[in-house]
């Protein structure tokens, strides 16, 4: 296990933004069949999700969250020394959307900016990366932005995934502070399973694929430019490899679920959350959920769950263990304290960057 420890860094702000447009799973009874939709709701837990408007991108959602967060926290933007944007749905193939966000947010040219192409483990992996960068530099404040608009990469005739994924974005602010408690991170990558969650076409490996959607072996209609996920193998990975790594970490730290106020998981689906709770011995009352009303929002799942659970509510000091897992395949764990008064209430927006169109 590769473990990183960061001293003198704390979470100084968190905000999430979702589109205003909601779609309810039951609206698809006529298309997919009421019985199948009922089973889908029971399995995934998704009652409704959010869908971005046509020209709205992941960076738009992240921008709104970051702009409001920096203003709310009263942070001098000239002190932001790094901006990392984690997304699978960037504005452009090139350049990185982080540069667009730097410009829109009015950050200094000295600010280090880059994208990370990660999905469901993106928040915790980005957290680890930003904390490492701050630890080895003179950076006082760092911004981790995240978001995806995966609904734009789904076949509307693929019932295995279309009703599960939703759109969201957000911002995490890290600050150097001598009295901050230690933050610990671990991670793991399983590249031999890279094709279990994939958009086959659109990159340079398969740039000219026929975009036609056809009936796939699993009975769903999709094309090579649509997102595909092998749900069965992802489920096995989530409830075996991911739980195993979490247990190993707890054993090495000599901690148990009793030492944490909550386990904030990637919101893969309701069934996985319950199985993960059982196998990890974290009771469900310590596993907050947001999947019912937002679906699986990939890298935004963990922070969106935190915003839903604690944003704008009674201030508490919590010790959280955050665990993201998915595309890659990849796992990331962050063990950190947080004062919930730095978590903003949920933001809704359909705004988009007109200059970028």
Please describe what this structure looks like:
The protein has 9 helices and 17 strands. By secondary structure, it is of the alpha/beta class. The chain has a single domain (1-352), classed as Peroxisomal Thiolase, Chain A, domain 1 (3-Layer(aba) Sandwich), CATH 3.40.47.10. Helix 3 packs parallel to helix 4 and helix 6 runs parallel beside helix 7. The model has no long low-confidence stretch (mean pLDDT 94).
CATH architecture: 3-Layer(aba) Sandwich
The fraction of residues in strands falls at 25-35%
- According to CATH, the homologous superfamily is Thiolase/Chalcone synthase
The string of secondary-structure elements, in order, is EEEHHEHEHEHEEEEEEEHEHHHEEE
| CATH level-3 fold name | Peroxisomal Thiolase, Chain A, domain 1
Give the overall form.
globular
Q: Terminal Cα separation, in Å?
A: 44 Å
The CATH first-level class comes to: Alpha Beta
E-strand count: 17
Features:
globular; 25% strand; five-stranded mixed sheet; alpha/beta; six-stranded mixed sheet
Walk me through the topology.
Layout: E1 2-6, E2 9-18, E3 22-24, H1 29-32, H2 34-44, E4 48-50, H3 58-73, E5 80-86, H4 97-105, E6 112-116, H5 122-135, E7 141-148, E8 168-176, E9 183-189, E10 197-198, E11 214-215, E12 221-222, E13 228-229, H6 231-253, E14 262-265, H7 270-280, H8 291-294, H9 301-310, E15 317-326, E16 330-339, E17 347-348
Parallel strand pairs: 2-17, 5-6, 5-7, 14-15
Antiparallel strand pairs: 1-9, 2-8, 3-4, 7-8, 9-16, 10-13, 11-12, 15-16
Helix pairs in contact: 3-4, 6-7
């Amino acid at each position: 296990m590769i473990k990183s420890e960061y001293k003198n860094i704390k979470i100084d702000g968190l905000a999430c933004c979702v589109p205003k447009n909601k779609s309810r799973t039951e609206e698809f009874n006529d298309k997919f069949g009421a019985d199948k939709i009922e089973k889908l709701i029971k399995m995934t837990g998704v009652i409704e999700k959010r869908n971005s408007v046509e020209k709205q991108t992941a960076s738009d959602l992240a921008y709104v969250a970051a702009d409001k967060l920096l203003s709310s926290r009263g942070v001098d933007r000239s002190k932001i020394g790094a901006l990392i944007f984690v997304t699978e749905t960037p504005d452009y193939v090139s350049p990185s959307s982080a540069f667009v966000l730097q410009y829109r947010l009015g950050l200094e040219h000295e600010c280090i900016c880059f994208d990370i192409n990660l999905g469901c483990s993106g928040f915790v992996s980005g957290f680890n990366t930003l904390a490492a960068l701050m630890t080895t530099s003179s950076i006082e404040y760092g911004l981790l932005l995240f978001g995806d608009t995966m609904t734009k990469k789904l076949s509307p005739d693929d019932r295995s995934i279309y009703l599960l994924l939703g759109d969201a974005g957000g911002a995490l602010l890290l600050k150097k502070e001598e009295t901050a408690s230690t933050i610990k991170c671990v991670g793991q990558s399983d590249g031999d399973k890279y094709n279990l969650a994939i958009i086959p076409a659109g990159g340079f490996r398969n740039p000219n694929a026929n975009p036609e959607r056809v009936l796939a072996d699993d009975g769903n209609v999709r094309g090579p430019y649509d997102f595909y996920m092998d749900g069965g193998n992802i489920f096995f990975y989530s409830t075996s490899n991911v739980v195993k790594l979490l247990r190993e970490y707890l054993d090495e730290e000599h901690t148990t679920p009793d030492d944490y106020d909550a386990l904030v998981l990637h919101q893969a689906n309701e069934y996985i959350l319950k199985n993960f709770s059982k196998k990890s011995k974290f009771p469900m009352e310590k596993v907050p959920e947001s999947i019912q009303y937002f679906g699986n929002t990939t890298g935004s799942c963990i922070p969106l769950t935190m915003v839903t659970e604690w944003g704008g509510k009674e201030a508490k000091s919590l010790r959280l263990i955050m665990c993201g897992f998915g595309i890659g395949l990849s796992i990331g764990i962050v063990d950190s304290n947080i004062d919930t008064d730095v978590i903003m209430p949920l933001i809704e927006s359909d705004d988009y960057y007109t200059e970028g169109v």
